[in-house]
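Hi all, posting the design record for the shared folder.

TITLE: backbone redesign
STEP: 1 of 1
STRUCTURE INPUT:
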C-alpha cells in the first residue's frame, strides 16, 4: 500500500488497503455508518466490501449515472439518512464512481451542517481524479456541477481490484485524465503511458500513484482554483464543449473520450501559441487517436461549440481561457484563444 498525504487527509493506494480502512473507520468512532452505492457498485463492489470489512452499516442505493446526479437523488439520500436516524456523528462511505463520490460527499457535507465521509472510488476516473481535490456537488437545471461545496473526506481508499469489473469503455475514459496529468506535469509518465496500448492488462497501482501525485500537488497548492489548479483543465475547454454537443445526439461520448479530442485540439493551440514543438504535437495526436479513435465534428457545429466555450466562467472578454502546453510535462494557465484560433484547432482535428 502507498500512502499519499495531503494536508488534512490521506490517499491510500493498493489492493491491501483493507486493514488500514477498518482501522480508520474504527478510529473515527462513527455513531452510524452508511454506504452509498448504485446498482452496479452494489453488484460488483459491495460483495468485496462486505467480505473485507468488520463493522455494520446501512446501504443506501441510488440509480447509476450522471442523469441521476440531481437534487431528487440527494433528497432520497438525505431521507434515508434521516430514516436511519443518522446525526452529525455519523459517517458516509461513498462506494462508487465520480457521481457517487461527488453527490455522496455533497450530501454528507450538508447533512445536519456536515457529516464525515470517506471516498472509496471504484472507477479509474474517480480513482485518479474525482475523489481528490475536495470538489463536491450535483448537476442543476442541466448545468453540470452547478450546486456544490468544497470539502474534504476523512480519507480516500484507492483499490484497483475494484477496476476488474469496470467496462472497458469506462476504463478508457478515466485513462484520459491520467494522460492529462502526464502532459501537464510529468514527461516521464507520458513516456511510460506511450508504451501502453491494451488497457485491459495493466497493473494500475504504480501508474496511479504517480498520476495522483500530480493532482495532489496541484490541489494542495491551489485548493480553490485561483491559479495553478486551472492546469487540470487542459483539454477540457474544447473537450467539454464537444462533450455537451454529443450529449444531445445519439452518439454520446464518455467524459474522457471528449477530453481526448479536446487534448488534441488544445495541443494544436499550444503548437500555435505556446511553443509546443511539432514533434510533440504529433506524438500526442498519434497516441490519443490510437487509444480513442476519432469522433466526427462537423463544421456546422462550430458555432455551438464556441458558444458553449464562451459561457465558461474563467473567460475574460471575448477570448476563451485555456491551459496550454509549453512542452510535454510543462503547462501554462490563463492563456487564451480567439474564436478563429479555436476553429483552426477543430479544423486540425478534423483533418486527421
Ligand atoms: N470532483 C471532481 O473533482 C471531479 C473530477 C472529475 C469528474 N468528476 C465527476 O465524476 C463524474 C464521472 O465519474 P465516473 O466516470 O466515475 O462516472 P460514474 O460514477 O457514473 O460511473 C460510471 C459507470 O460505472 C459504473 N461502475 C462504477 N464502478 C464500477 C465497477 N467497479 N464495476 C462496474 N461498474 C462500475 C457506475 O455504476 C456507472 O454506471 C461526473 O459527474 C464528473 O462531474 C468530478
Ligand atoms: Zn475531466
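Okay, here is what came back for every position:
SEQUENCE:
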Amino acid at each position: 500500500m502507498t500512502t499519499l498525504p495531503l494536508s488534512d487527509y490521506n490517499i491510500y493506494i493498493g489492493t491491501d488497503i483493507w486493514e488500514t480502512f477498518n482501522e480508520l473507520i474504527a478510529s473515527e468512532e462513527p455513531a452510524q455508518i452508511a454506504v452509498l452505492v448504485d446498482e452496479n457498485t452494489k453488484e460488483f463492489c459491495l460483495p468485496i466490501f462486505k467480505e473485507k470489512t468488520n463493522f455494520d452499516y446501512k446501504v443506501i442505493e441510488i440509480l447509476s449515472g450522471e442523469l441521476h446526479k440531481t437534487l431528487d437523488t440527494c433528497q432520497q439520500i438525505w431521507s434515508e439518512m434521516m430514516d436511519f436516524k443518522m446525526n452529525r456523528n455519523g459517517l458516509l462511505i461513498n462506494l462508487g464512481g465520480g457521481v457517487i463520490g461527488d453527490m455522496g460527499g455533497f450530501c454528507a457535507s450538508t447533512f445536519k451542517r456536515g457529516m464525515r465521509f470517506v471516498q472509496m472510488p471504484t472507477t479509474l476516473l474517480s480513482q485518479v481524479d474525482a475523489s481528490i481535490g475536495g470538489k463536491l456537488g450535483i448537476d442543476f437545471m442541466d448545468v453540470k456541477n452547478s450546486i456544490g461545496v468544497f470539502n474534504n473526506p476523512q480519507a480516500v481508499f484507492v483499490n484497483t481490484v475494484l477496476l476488474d469489473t469496470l467496462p472497458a469503455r469506462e476504463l478508457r475514459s478515466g485513462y484520459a485524465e491520467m494522460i492529462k496529468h502526464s502532459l501537464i506535469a510529468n514527461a516521464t509518465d507520458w513516456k511510460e503511458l506511450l508504451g501502453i496500448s491494451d488497457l485491459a492488462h495493466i497493473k494500475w497501482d504504480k501508474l496511479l500513484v504517480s498520476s495522483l501525485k500530480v493532482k495532489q500537488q496541484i490541489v494542495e497548492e491551489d485548493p480553490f482554483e485561483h491559479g495553478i489548479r486551472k492546469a487540470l483543465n487542459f483539454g477540457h475547454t474544447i473537450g467539454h464543449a464537444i462533450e455537451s454537443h454529443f450529449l444531445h445526439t445519439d452518439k454520446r461520448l464518455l467524459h474522457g473520450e471528449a477530453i481526448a479530442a479536446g487534448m488534441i485540439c488544445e495541443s494544436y493551440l499550444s503548437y500555435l501559441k505556446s511553443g509546443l514543438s511539432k514533434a510533440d504535437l504529433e506524438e500526442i495526436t498519434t497516441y490519443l487517436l490510437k487509444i480513442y479513435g476519432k469522433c466526427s465534428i462537423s463544421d456546422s457545429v462550430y458555432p455551438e461549440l464556441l458558444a458553449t466555450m464562451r459561457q465558461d466562467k474563467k473567460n475574460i472578454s471575448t477570448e476563451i481561457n485555456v491551459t496550454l502546453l509549453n512542452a510535454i510535462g510543462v503547462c501554462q494557465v490563463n492563456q487564451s484563444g480567439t474564436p478563429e484560433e479555436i476553429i483552426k484547432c477543430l479544423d486540425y482535428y478534423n483533418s486527421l
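COMMENT: The CA atoms of residues 136 and 149 lie 5 Å apart.
Let me know if anyone wants the other runs.
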